[in-house]
Amino acid sequence: MLEFLQQLINGLAQGSIYALIALGYTMVFGVLRFINFAHGDVYMLGAFAGFYIGPKMLRLFGDQPGYGVLISMLLVTMILCALIGIGIEWLCYRPLRNRPKLTVLITAIGVSLFLENGGQFLFGADPKSFPEILTDRYISLPETWGRISELGIQLSAAISMLVTVILLFGLRHIVLHTKMGMAMRALSFNPVAASLMGINNSVVIAFTFGLGSALAGAAGILTSIQQPSIDPLMGISAGLKAFVAAVLGGIGNLPGAALGGILIGVIETMVVGYISPTYRDAIVFGVLILILLLKPTGLLGASEQEKV
């Protein structure tokens, strides 16, 4: 039982990363009805932004790893990734807005390949060691708690879960309690009616890309402090699994994306812990196929005529 609980904790930590990336997929789909396959590569760019920003932040804080370095690096990285996301939308997707969805989809795959190969050209193909911006340690429960005190979690994983929860509540506030969030929901429901009501669709779409990319950048940093080895192709696997998470939860549904990310993280960790790491990806994608066969709209998705 203790081993199961420990695997569950590890799965929640991993799932929180997938949830952050999956939210970007689902927001863009909700507004534009297409899959931005370059989103996983923005996650990679977030990790490399931290790789270069981290040493500068360390010097700013007296070469002492700590929470101040992490928070400042996280904020700068999220802003940079938001600008990258807005730039991708402006350069690559906006000119194709009235073209067939298949054209935009192929463009998204092209953008993804461009970022992956461009990343290898700029950063080098070899894995890089992420700077130590936080002194990691193992956190265990008090011994007075009995057998359950054997459970524990790495500090970096606990921070990832905490930051994810904060960002999820922040996103919920933006979507439900701000004018921009109201405009996003209106655009998602009916773009033509939203435009007739005076909403600037281009601004809302750019904001959506920026917001999703900022979350992907945060996920890149949170992953890197747990697994301090980054490379230009790290976004492929994480992006695909986050996409699976978004579809699993119901693409276009924000709570569904978060739920799907958590489920994928837990399933993946359980497979590694109880079966074999070899079957991890096969079982994750098998679960996706099973869910789509039984409930094509995903766990929390609503029935629509159009589907990915």
Description:
This protein has 308 residues and is mainly alpha-helical. The chain contains eleven helices and four strands. It has a two-stranded antiparallel ribbon. A two-stranded antiparallel sheet has the order 2-3.
Shape: globular
Characterize the biggest β-sheet. 2 strands, antiparallel
Q: Helicity level, as a percent range?
A: over 70%
Q: Strands across the major sheet, in which order?
A: 1-4
Percent strand:
under 5%
- Which blocks of ≥5 consecutive residues have pLDDT under 50? none
Count of alpha and pi helical runs: 11
Q: Between the first and last Cα atoms, what is the distance in angstroms?
A: 39 Å
Q: How many E strands?
A: 4
Radius of gyration: 19 Å
Q: Element order, helices and strands?
A: HHHHEEEHHHHEHHH
Overall pLDDT score:
87
